[in-house]
Amino acid sequence: MIGARGEPVWFQLYPSNDAQVMRALVKRAEAAGCRVLLLTVDMPLGPNRETQLRLAKQDARPCAACHDGTFAGYVRRKPMFDGLDLAKVEDNIALGMDWDYVKRLRDLTSMKVVLKGVVTREDAALAVEHGVDAVYVSNHGGRSEESGRGALDSLPEVAEAVGGRIPVLVDRGFRRGTDVFKALALGATAVGIGRPYVWGLAAFGEEGVLAVIRMLKAELVMAMQTCGTPRLRDVGRDRVRLVG
Fold it and tell me: Is the dihedral of CA 118, 122, 127, 133 positive or negative?
């Protein structure tokens, strides 16, 4: 991927419950030229996907001849896991993650370490205290626990706790340039987009992705002009009004 893109990419780590596999993945990403490691901390277990269960196939005959239904069987099809012993892999999240785990990860790699899934001021302050390079406000689209707060609702307190000491990223549900403006006003350093560029890619390939980015940028510029903020650093909390 890095070779095709011509510049480094970030690697999002779902930390396997097998420490050996986790270390191997980190080292492979680092060797490939990744400069940033996103440690996923906001999805400690799979969600209760009721719709998926209702729509599951009714044919209950085993298909082990074609598919290995275990998690190890699932990740074995991914090149990142080639050659690794997956016998002990039960899930893609280490349930025992704590701040010592984060320290061991930082000591393991020279990549920048970003915590993805921070949604409270307490965890944000601890992240700074424990030396992470950035925090990423995200709740995995609310798929794990749908009654939790949205990422944008969590952003102000995280940004306040960080106090400009490290970057604050955010994603989840950003569809327009005005959404990006709001996130920047509430303290985000950068905003991640997911589905919009995928929609563009599905419709028109690379040109579709570029079109989505151009539209988001144009809408952001329009919002900045409307709100009297000629520079990104002028986009502050006084430009938005929180309701609720």
Answer: positive
Break the chain into its structural domains and give their ranges: 2-172, 193-244
DSSP class of 29: H
The Cα 117–Cα 137 span in angstroms is: 5
Q: Does pLDDT of 7 surpass 60? A: yes
Q: Among 122, 153, 124, 161, which Cα is nearest to 240's?
A: 153
Point out the residues that are catalytic. 140
What does the pLDDT read at residue 65?
A: 57
> Distance (Å, rounded) from C-alpha 78 to C-alpha 167?
31
Amino acid sitting at position 145? E
CA distance 179 to 141: 16
Residue 169 has pLDDT above 90, yes or no: yes
pTM of the predicted protein model: 0.85
- CATH assignment of 2-172? 3.20.20.70
